[in-house]
Amino acid sequence: MKKLNIAIIGLGNIGSYLFNYLNKNKKILSKKNNCVPNVLFVSAKNKKRKRKIKIKKKLWLKNYLDATKDKNVDLIIELIGGSEGAAKKLVFNALKNKKHVVTANKALIAKYGDKLAEIAEKNKVNLEFEAAVCGGVPIIRSIKEGLIANKINKIFGIFNGTSNYILSSMDKQSKEFDEVLNDAKNLGYAESNPSADLNGDDVAAKLKILTSLCFNSYLNNNIHVEGIKNIDKIDINNANKLGYKIKLLGYSEQINNKIYQRVHPALIKKSSYVASIDGVLNAVIVDGKPVGKNIIQGEGAGPAATTSALVSDISSILRGNIKFPFSISNKERKRLKFENISKRFFSAYLRFEVLDKSGVLSNITNVFSNNNVSIKRLVQNPNKNKGISSIIIITHNSKDSSLNKIVKIIGKKIYVKKKPKLIRIDDN
Amino acid sequence: MKKLNIAIIGLGNIGSYLFNYLNKNKKILSKKNNCVPNVLFVSAKNKKRKRKIKIKKKLWLKNYLDATKDKNVDLIIELIGGSEGAAKKLVFNALKNKKHVVTANKALIAKYGDKLAEIAEKNKVNLEFEAAVCGGVPIIRSIKEGLIANKINKIFGIFNGTSNYILSSMDKQSKEFDEVLNDAKNLGYAESNPSADLNGDDVAAKLKILTSLCFNSYLNNNIHVEGIKNIDKIDINNANKLGYKIKLLGYSEQINNKIYQRVHPALIKKSSYVASIDGVLNAVIVDGKPVGKNIIQGEGAGPAATTSALVSDISSILRGNIKFPFSISNKERKRLKFENISKRFFSAYLRFEVLDKSGVLSNITNVFSNNNVSIKRLVQNPNKNKGISSIIIITHNSKDSSLNKIVKIIGKKIYVKKKPKLIRIDDN
Questions:
Q1: What are the backbone dihedrals phi and psi of residue B369, each rounded to the nearest 5 degrees, phi first?
Q2: Among the partner residues A130, A145, A307, nearest to B290 by beta-carbon distance
Q3: Residues in chain A within 8 Å Cβ distance of B25
Q4: ipTM of the prediction
Q5: What pLDDT digit, counting tens, does each position of B3-56 carry?
Q6: I need a surface site. Which of A195, B44, B394, B405 has the fewest CB within 10 A?
Q7: Residue % of chain B over a pLDDT of 90
Q8: To 5 degrees, how large is the angle CA A221–CA A223–CA A225?
Q9: Alpha helix locations (H) across A41-153?
Q10: CA-to-CA distance for B135 and A196, rounded, in angstroms?
Q11: Which residue, A67, A51, A63, A65, is CA-closest to A19?
């Protein structure tokens, strides 16, 4: 039987899990793919770190870049992470030297994917990154193969387990953000530095990659990104009363030949599918023709789920299934027009904490009407702090720039006691 | 660019839709797969039937079997249907003559799949049948490729849109089975002869195929099959009061190295994912290691969704991605032990319509205790018909054969006025 020689570079939790998996499942993978996955080399920054796995001495490379030069190596699995430095050097050199590459590195692909795909295509090697987007959810393979027939008009969903865990825990346990974040860190659902998970950057990187795959376009940095740090318990409670959940969602959609990419918290109807996804799960909804709506859901992170994705990529290479990294030849990818969301229309939830005195309400509603935003629903609640009121407004469909302008104008009024909140509503 | 010559045999709704799709999307499919899908021939039983598509005269074959003999044909798409007759002849001959085959024919694959896979493997051609299982849901590709890393221990879900539509409409509109079936026929959600959809046979064929793929086993006819014809509105109402929905589910699971295949209506918790799937949708849940639970959901039938699946198979062949039809070489497939569900344990819902007189309840409960089935919950309701009571019993986990024995024994009692109901409960 044919053999494919593999170098695993990076042996953290994921690399170690994968190494172990490949050892234990070499036989069945060989049978299924008609080719033996043979781990020839490994490399890690910290060779002496305690790992649960036994690695033979002869497997260790002196220098991780040697993998890109050794003529026996067919496939390099990059598990270093980060869009620059060692990971970047490794993947560029590997592809230049005609090695297949499998990576879980979303930051690298979102930033340098176009250039890397060009090199891979020129050298007729695979560049696979299923594990970079939504862990165990086989979404990239589905877009590129299972749903290949479809003209996709929208992809959206929950792409970050950490922030989804935090939002659903705030809801279920009626706790504030900071409290839940601490719990999440203790339970291992949030990293010690979770900023990329919480500020939307992690979702943004995944969404850029998915956008390219769905619309056959180049990667594009025109993307609106908001995280969940400003969501308060009171907003989640208010949403509940209005029949909504708050979720951090990523959206990419084609409207009148323009692409809109956006990542932000959204109020979404309780009865919708996405609202029911709690905890660390990921869920992706693809809307296309002829298939209609397709949903894929599963574990979005962790060594086990990520290994499932890495092995699907490795198997594809074992079978010799050479494909364009982004579905289509680099030359055929399109320079689509990406539009900022400021001109797009949303209905929205706004919350103002204001002094409880006469004239305030009429002043606020005036600002709305001056900016052509019509109010669908308004609720005024007394706040726990004496003399302060919460005003909650649900708007009709309005221009995003107008909604933001209103927040800015009212935010400067002296009767406003806290930065106003604006959360878009997804009524689909 | 390379070219792949295709013959489409069968031009009903699906065949016509596919023909049209391939005409319109030839260019983009060529680009994505680096090979041109060229429809060289078509054939249909009724050539003169009115179709919305224009077919050039030169495309028509004199005899459909000519496609298997013409040396220019690379791929035959079988859309005739049925496990015997023309479809069987066509597919066997095609594979024997080294033509790739794509089919949407679940009955054929469930019955002759093992033999067909053997021929395909011997002749190094593809036999692909994504469209045979759950229409637009790319479940076969996911099991064979996206989730290839996993040892699957259970697959289950909603595999029939017609019966799911009927059950969810009975629930939402509070109507009886026959009434809803009529609506479904008028709306095109049920065929004029829907018996295979309603008696569980359609689900059984799909489940047999999925079982083989998940457990690397040969197809096996040891399967328990029940349909939805005996579900009354009152059962759905009772289920609702107890916190359940009733769904027609297919399950295949490996327990202590034995495989259990079963198709039956089940009470499933309202809060569960599957309970939320209404209408004609299909949903498949795959539980495996290392990935955990993966869910795929989408349109399960109709020309559009089926074409999405057919084109994914065609594309795979365009790319030259030769694979074993059932994931693994025919020689490597396993003769696993398949067990009848009679020894498996379920909790269950039972309903007895009985004469409203003293002694009946104690007689019934005696039968339960004599057969070692313990009762978790019992509700007695007066029936609309005077002198008749409904007795609803929820049991603890009990042997399936004991549950059935109880139904048989009590069903013969003179105080019983209707055939008793037994519906298993899925508490997972």
A1: -70, -35
A2: A307
A3: 149
A4: 0.91
A5: 999 999 999 999 999 999 999 999 999 999 999 999 999 999 988 888 888 999
A6: A195
A7: 90
A8: 125
A9: 66-69, 85-96, 106-122, 139-141
A10: 38
A11: A51
What is the count of residue pairs from A and B with beta carbons less than 8 Å apart? Answer: 159
* Residue B275 near residue B156 (C-beta atoms within 8 A): no
Q: What is the pTM of this model?
A: 0.94
**Residues in contact with A184: Cβ distance below 8 Å, sequence separation at least 6, in sequence order:** A162, A165, A166, A169, A190, A194
Tokens read off for A19: 């190494």
What is the least distance, in Å, from the CA of B133 to any CA of chain A?
13
pLDDT at B384 over 90: no
Phi–psi pair at A189, nearest 5 degrees: -90, -10
Instruction: Provide the token pair at A391.
Output: 């005003």
Asked if B313 has any chain A CB less than 8 Å from its own CB, the reply is no
- Interface touch B298/A298, C-beta < 8 Å: no
Please name the residue that has the structure tokens 């050199």: A93
Residue A271: in which H helix or E strand, if any? none
In B314-364, DSSP assigns E strands to 337-338, 345-355
DSSP B52-67: SS---GGGB-SSTTHH
The verdict on a CB contact (< 8 Å) between B298 and A292 is yes
Cα–Cα distance for residue pair A251/A224, rounded to 1 Å: 10
Q: From the list A148, A292, A315, which residue is nearest B304 (CB)?
A: A292
How far apart (Å, rounded) are the C-alpha atoms in residues B249 and A200? Answer: 38
Burial (CB count within 10 angstroms: exposed 0-12, middle 13-18, buried 19+), residue B410: buried
Q: Are A291 and A144 in contact (CB under 8 A)?
A: no
Average pLDDT over residues B180-192: 90
pLDDT digits (tens, 9 = 90+) for B215-262: 999 999 999 999 999 999 999 999 999 999 999 999 999 999 999 999
- Secondary structure element (H or E) that encloses residue A362, with its range: helix A360-370
Q: Please tell me which of the candidates A130, A136, A145 has its beta carbon nearest to residue B315.
A: A145
Question: CA of A328, closest CA in chain B: separation in Å?
Answer: 5
Residue type, B254: Q
Domains by residue range for chain A, with CATH: 2-132 (3.40.50.720), 139-299 (3.30.360.10), 344-426 (3.30.70.260)
Q: What is the pLDDT of residues A141-176, one digit of tens each?
A: 999 999 999 999 999 999 999 999 999 999 999 999
| Average pLDDT for chain B | 95
Which residues of chain A fall below pLDDT 70? 428
Mean per-residue pLDDT for B94-123? 98
Is the minimum CB–CB distance between B92 and chain A shorter than 8 Å?
Answer: no
Closest CA to B59 of B49, B75, B44: B44
Beta pairing class for B388-395 and B375-382: antiparallel
